[in-house]
Amino acid sequence: MSEAAVNAVNETGATAEPGIIAPPLAPTLTERVRERPLLSLALAGLAGFVTGGGASSRTGAAMLMLIARIWLRRAATDALASAVTSYGTAKRNGSA
């Protein structure tokens, strides 16, 4: 890179607007636990169950599959409901 190009880059960096604010950082683990304590407790229990060997038994695997089916059904229902409710809103608002 030539010296003139380096100087141009340095000048543009020095004249950047000082009023630009950086985007907020991702929430920390503590903030996430405070926002959703029941979900955090469930995930901690699941991790303890799996690492403790509960998933290695036939009963433990059946329990995990039952919970997974319930969770997937709810996630699919929520996704479908949000897709149906937001269908066409961009056209009505004039965005698209």
- Label the structural class: mainly alpha
What is the tally of helical segments? 5
| Order of SSEs | HHHHH
| Mean of pLDDT | 79
What is the number of E strands?
0
Quick one: overall form?
Answer: extended
User: What are the segments in which pLDDT stays under 50 over at least 5 consecutive residues?
Assistant: none
How far apart the termini lie comes to: 43 Å
Descriptive key words:
mainly alpha, 96 residues, 5 helices
Notes on the protein architecture:
The protein is an all-alpha fold and 96 residues long. 71% of the residues lie in helices and 0% in strands. It is built from 5 helices and no strands. It has helices at 3-14, 29-35, 37-51, 58-86, 89-93. Helix 2 (29-35) crosses helix 3. The radius of gyration is 25 Å and the shape is extended.
TL;DR?
The protein has helices at 3-14, 29-35, 37-51, 58-86, 89-93.
Question: What's the topology here?
Answer:
Blueprint: H1 3-14, H2 29-35, H3 37-51, H4 58-86, H5 89-93
Helix pairs in contact: 2-3
